[in-house]
Design a protein that fits this description.
The protein is built from eight helices and four strands; from the N terminus they run E-H-E-E-H-E-H-H-H-H-H-H. It has 201 residues and is of the alpha/beta class. The longest helix has 20 residues.
Amino acid sequence: MIDKDNINEIIVCGASDLLEEVAEEEPAAVLSMEHPGVSPGEPGHAPRLAESGFDDVPQLILTFWDSEQKVPNGPDRAQVQKGLDFVMDHIKDGAVVIHCKAGKSRSAAMALGVLSKLHPEKPETELVEMLLAIRPQAAPNILMVEMLDDMTGRGGKLVKAVLDHPVVSAQRAQAEENRRSLAREKPELYRKMFPEKFFKP
């Protein structure tokens, strides 16, 4: 049984829901993850709180692709560490919103890292269940999980807990298929818009 009091300090959502979440929850801070090179209003762009009437809410915006492969402008240790530190700096003051484009992969991985840092006494399998209680559709980016596992001293056990969980594994597989489907269906557009992220399906 998951104690809801242990997870109510973390809110995970997609970019389209961010402003509504901020208005309703009045968080202490927001960690945003967006795609490189996107313009305001395009999919993958993080809303700017300061331009939306929430200039009193601290916001950190990280920029990297949701890729589980090592690609240019993909998840990198420096940005992931910066994001983890930002959340930990603010979570003592209240709830923190963590979001990416869909609120499934990058943001779920970061939330799992935060849970690992907040609850060093809890087993990794319980942390994954806590993540699912926060965001049932979580499909955490495994490349980020590997980094956060190391940053929070889990010795590979956090990665294993993610890979071994049947629900999370199924959702990760679907997320990867969605990435590959886009590459298959719109290869030229994909190459043109996101050359750094393109991979052969």
